[in-house]
């Protein structure tokens, strides 16, 4: 059976999803374009303060009526399990919607993104009755208990690069922990999250617990951050926006913020990495998957000089073998850039990198199909020094910079970044060197002989330094949505 589909056959959700239903609210209209061909997919309105207020009112009423945070935990789990099953049953529709509106390819959205989204919901459903407190050591006749409690209403803001999955990393643990959520995805990719909220309602998640508002970041996003009844904020996006959100949260009351931000992740390849055709495939996938629009993209190749020429040659071969095309064609292997604006930003940054001394090994321009969509050629750059913009800033596109080294110490120094610390990979068959590198590199996620997360939901995501703090997924992913209460009982 083919996964390819006709884009005109996919129903596009309309409105905000508040209080368990789609509702239209006044606001500036935002046209949502399909990145593959820049045709109109649908329009949303910028909800702003009014939509957020309505969502908060719905969340408050739902928490009161359903007592969600205090029902038998297995009941909460059962509802979320039904939600996961409904996502799986609707995987084709969700996968098509995701492929239509984002840079994700249909070859991966139905069997990958949608199924993984269901998996994330199921993973956290299983946590509902496994959140445990502690009884701490005390003197006689006293009892000291630490227990976890939900916040009440939490807010979440996510970007456009994996719209369903990054959203699920937040709404699933937030709901499993007993909270209501008000969330917003990017104005560039609003539709799949709306469809997920509708499925949650169908599964029996009490109406008003899972609200999705549409709009721009500086209006609707900021309204979520500022709202006094939203008790914590979980954000994924750029480092710059993360800083703005921290500041906004601090100005509008004290509330915790978790930040999953950008990266500039190195791929450190040692001469003993093994079969270079395998390593080249791995390194290429790490900067070309989703056209480099991945927070953990391996955008900096740091390779031992004795194998550099051969490895680069092989990578160039792989960059030539791509098939750029519509996201709804299952034979497409290379994704579009999310918007023309983002494409121009990547291109402008590549030009500036060259002005500052870099040279292009391959790529360095938009692909010819530019008029039908926003495609940028896989690009490899060399001579990118530490003061070059190509080292300092995130491209968030299919761009790889190359540096070489002659011993491990030098390689580790090159792998360091002054701002970012999201992820890093080390490719070597020498586990002593791998572990030394893993110890040395300042990043929240380290991979040995692969680049990118494995399939396990227990593996937590999150960065060091300018790549943020707080974690998604794993046990830490649900603890983020719980606060701790210390109870002291004197029974002398
Ligand atoms: P962005 O920061 O521009 O926007 C992210 C979200 O924040 C969007 O929904 C946007 O509307 C909203 N927003 C923007 N300004 C806001 C404001 N002032 N107040 C409240 N909300 C605001 O990021 P993007 O361009 O959508 O996504 C790409 C970025 O996301 C990259 O930097 C990438 O590395 C990062 N990212 C990080 C992770 C991670 O897990 N660390 C995962 C995916 C993407």
From TrEMBL:
The keyword Membrane does not apply. It holds the Pfam family Aldedh. GO terms for molecular function: aldehyde dehydrogenase [NAD(P)+] activity. The active site is at residue 260. Residues 28-487 form the Aldehyde dehydrogenase domain. PROSITE patterns: ALDEHYDE_DEHYDR_GLU. The keyword Plastid does not apply. Keywords: Oxidoreductase. It comes from the Bacteria. PANTHER family: ALDEHYDE DEHYDROGENASE-RELATED. Belongs to the aldehyde dehydrogenase family. This is Aldehyde dehydrogenase domain-containing protein. It comes from Pararhizobium polonicum.
